[in-house]
Specification:
The chain is an all-alpha fold and 88 residues long. It has six helices and no strands. Helix 3 packs across helix 4. The longest helix has 19 residues.
Length: 88
């Protein structure tokens, strides 16, 4: 018996790679929006070999590098909390 799954994803009209990329994109956006993790940490959490690969993929998905996307889509309360913590 082979190590491959029989049926399943091809029958659904998708692939493992597509599902993985969709999950990485969704989770990456959430982590960036949250504002508590750095770009390097997010790349690691999403399973990228290096930050550069994550940044390249993210730019393809969203049209902006992660740091610029975060500035325009970040959670305002997280950003306010981060600024407040710096003043303490």
């Amino acid at each position: 018996m082979s190590g491959r799954c029989s049926g399943g994803l091809p029958e659904e009209g998708t692939s493992f790679r597509t599902l993985l990329n969709d999950a990485r994109r969704e989770w990456g956006c959430q982590l960036l929006r949250d504002g508590t993790s750095g770009i390097d940490e997010i790349a690691y959490l999403l399973g990228y070999q290096d930050t550069r690969s994550f940044c390249r993929a993210f730019r393809e998905w969203e049209g902006l590098p992660p740091n610029q996307w975060r500035k325009t889509h970040g959670d305002e309360t997280s950003l306010i909390d981060a600024k407040t913590d710096l003043r303490l």
